[in-house]
Amino acid sequence: MMAMTEVVVENVEQNVKEVLARYGNNPARMIEILQDLQDIYGYLPREVLREVSHQTEMPLTRVYHVATFFKAFTLKPRGKYTIQVCTGTACHVKGSYRVLERLEDVLGIKAGDTTDDLMFTLETVNCVGACALGPVVIVNHKYHAYMTPAKVESLIKEYREQ
Amino acid sequence: MKRIESREALLELYRELAGEREKEEKYIAVCTGTACLANGAQEVYDAFKEELAKRGLDIQVKKGEGSVSLRGTGCHGFCGRGPLVAIHPRKIFYQLVRPEDVPEIVEKTVVGGELIDRLLYEDPVTGERVLHEEDIPFYKKQMRLLMAANGQIDPKSIYDYIAIGGYQAMAKAILDMEGDEIIQEVIDSGLRGRGGAGFPTGWKWEDAKKHQSPVKYVICNADEGDPGAYMDRSLLEGNPHSVLEGMIIGAYAVGATEGWVYVRKEYPLALENITLAIEQARELGLLGENILGSGFSFDVKVARGGGAFVGGESSALMASIEGRVAEPRSKHIHATESGLWGRPTVLNNVETWANVPIIINKGAQWYAKIGTEKSKGTKIFSLVGDVNHTGLVEVPMGITLREVIFDIGGGIPGGKEFKGVQTGGPSGGCLPQSQLDLPVDFDTLDAAGSMMGSGGMIVMDENTCMVDVARYFVKFLTEESCGKCVPCREGLKHMLDILTRITDGEGTMEDVELLEELGYVIAHASLCGLGKSAPNPVLSTIKYYKDEYIEHVRDKKCRAGVCKALVKYIIIAENCTGCHVCFKRCPVGAISGEPKGIHVIDQEMCIKCGICKDVCKFDAVKVV
Question: Which residue, among A61, A89, A99, A152, would best test binding to B if mutated, counting the most B CBs under 10 Å from its CB?
């Protein structure tokens, strides 16, 4: 909780305006609009969702409905590194659940959460299409193939020290 | 780029480009599909670029003067062996290439014409090195109508696509054929939707054509959400223009003016390549007003998905393009009558669209010769899991599961036993050994309790627990259920509770019966395809692997060693050398023993994370 207060949300009005302009101020492109805003802030802060509602004249509930329905959106700030554990079927039968459990243990958080120091966000994804390399763990777009629980600690250490 | 205004201009450009390609003495194709990129293909590509530049064989040098061109191509399919490199015209096929190998490849193979043995594929049976892609057992039984071009063209270049005959089918369709003729051709070809349901594509088009409206839409569904399937991604990444060409033909046939491609956000490269393809086609005048002077106008836009499995359901997908949440609606009225924004809409899957130019080029009769009586053409499967050769395989319909898994896939690694194959993603089912000789087509798989689905094929060996697999899929579907209708939302939740109870060793025999009852209700009462097919993984595993359910319930045993509550880790004294590694690596200090002495795991403390088993080099840790 303490960590959340450290996040500063700036230029909301301007950023929302710019992103909306990219899509011709068309609220039908809500998914893309929110994705672009999430790319700017790393997550969807409450102020941003309010501003989107305000500028598009869409009810705030509609904006929240979209923001909470799709997996791609997060309403909480994210860590510097996002660790995605692929839990697609191929990775599952190769033991990705064991890798996930180990990551949860080492980081002390559950999938979907962020560490207090805002270093790591842990999440699961359903198939990234690298099924031939499973179990796959992706850290900020870098793929780590053939993961095992035994490799988890050194992986985390590697990123902590970067 | 110069606009192409007529068929003659397109033909001229094709001749020029194809001629240029023929003059190319050598070209190096580096697979830059997602799986190869994950294995380091970008570094390999960069190393080639640098090495060629260093030797003055740079791609910038004019073609036909002893130069070597370099192409980053789409997915070749043999993903387990990436990065893959093919050297043309001899088509020498190197696998597991590292950047360090590149100078040697250029020196010996590209310049010197010699082979580098260690980079060639070794046949595990004969031990012989295989020179060409098509001679590798993995490719031999395949029929690569859609995938072949992936390895030959740069997906970021429309000229590469035109050079291999691209957009000729479109020219033929919009200049020589009436809409009805095209639809009849597609009906006669027997093409059925590759997204999973297998609905005849031509019928869908016919229906959309019938409905009068000044605005109609065609949509390409690239929201490939099945975990374990990635053929649509590889087509969009590797050959986006073939999909686009199919869409233009379909749009002309039904009288649509606007198209949408709906792509998952999890597929950034596919998104990039299709967006670029659309821009290039527009610049050349192959999209937009009055295409090739035919009077037909059509344009395509891209929409990004937000990451929801149900978003791939057709009515949910359209809701999502309209900017709403992806919730399906009841389908008393078909999308072909009232779809996107209430207009007649044809929605087809990526692979379906990519088949269309082939049918127009080669004719329905030719196409209908491939496959079985009711399932025509080829199908791309992603063959993954516990199988030697993982990757994308394109096979004629009607091939048996055994041929795919054992001949193409090379069987189960490590001499383990085959246990089952899961087809059709979370909506499909698991089939055991006894069903391996089934021909793969829409109707046979349905009848066996599974389905074709979009083409995921996950092979499972003896170390897979089928109850856990059922639980895995139900958990996935519970999370992905949109929550709109009760049977799916509540029914799945209860199925998950029951399955969790069973895998925790607390199930009863009544639970298994209850699962079957629940499954029946969910399948019959749910609103959309997701709910209707959701019980399949459970019902098919109960059907074929009931003994495993009974073992979990009655004997409190998980024979595969997967269900944590039912297994323990022990150290086999005879195998333990006292290397002390497990002692050092155990995160909870549950292992005791002196160096060079026999080690023991304290069962009270053990959290069953499996690290001791992973790190033991002497096979001394067993799961019982």
Answer: A89
Tracing tokens 């395949």 back to the chain, one arrives at B142
- Asked if A14 reaches chain B (Cβ–Cβ under 8 Å), the answer is no
For residue A1, is pLDDT > 60? no
CATH 3.40.50.11540 is right for the domain spanning B166-368: yes
- pLDDT for A115: 93
Helices A30-41 and A60-69, packing angle to 10 deg: 70
Contact B428, B529 (CB under 8 A): no
d(Cα B297, Cα B230) in Å, to the nearest integer?
Answer: 32
Instruction: Say what the pTM is.
Output: 0.89
- For position B61, what pLDDT does the model report? 40
The CATH number, out of the four listed (1.10.10.10, 3.40.30.10, 3.40.930.10, 1.20.970.10), of the domain defined by the range B24-135: 3.40.30.10
Which numeric CATH code is attached to B466-555?
Answer: 1.20.1440.230
B436-465 residues touching A, CB cutoff 8 A:
456, 458, 460, 464
- How far is C-alpha B343 from the geometric centre of its chain's CA atoms? 31
Q: Determine phi and psi for B60, rounding to 5 degrees.
A: -70, -25
- pLDDT on residue B65: 52
Q: State chain B's mean pLDDT as an integer.
A: 91
Query: A148 touching B, CB under 8 A?
Result: yes
Phi and psi dihedrals of B145, rounded to 5? -70, -45
CB contact under 8 A, B79 and A32: no
Give me the residue label for tokens 């010996």: B108
ipTM: 0.81
pLDDT digit string, tens, across residues A11-40 = 999 999 999 999 998 888 899 999 999 989
Q: Is any Cβ of chain B less than 8 angstroms from the Cβ of A139? A: no
Helix (H) or strand (E) holding B161: helix B158-163
Q: Which two tokens stand for residue B159?
A: 């000229």
